[in-house]
Amino acid sequence: MLYFQPTNILTEDIEAVQALINTARVQAGSQYAALESAVNYTTDLTAMYELGYNTVNDVNFSMETAHLAKNQILQQAATAMLHKPTKVSRGYSN
């Protein structure tokens, strides 16, 4: 029996170390999953931010284009009014 006792102790030590390794693997796996989830969440937020940013830029561009078109129309109308005298102004100029 004396020969088997050191083997049992060695086996118990190995099993204890294996249990510690398994626990560490489980903890590392859960931490990795948490990090992976955080990265995915951040990636989704970045994509959503870019989508929102591009939408706002599109709206701003459309608004600026409409404003420019309006100003050009007003300018053309004013220019046309200045170059074409009306009957009233002809009467006063004579």
Average pLDDT works out at 87
Count of DSSP H/I helices: 2
What is the helix fraction of residues, given as a range? over 70%
* Beta-strand content estimate: under 5%
Molecular structure report:
- The structure is a single chain.
- The chain is mainly α and 94 residues long.
- The chain has a domain at 12-58.
- It is 93% helix and 0% strand.
- The protein is built from two helices and no strands.
- It has helices at residues 4-83, 87-93.
- The radius of gyration is 40 Å and the shape is rod-shaped.
- The model has no long low-confidence stretch (mean pLDDT 87).
In short:
The protein has helices at residues 4-83, 87-93.
Key words describing this protein structure:
mainly alpha, rod-shaped, 0% strand, 94 residues
Topology:
Layout: H1 4-83, H2 87-93
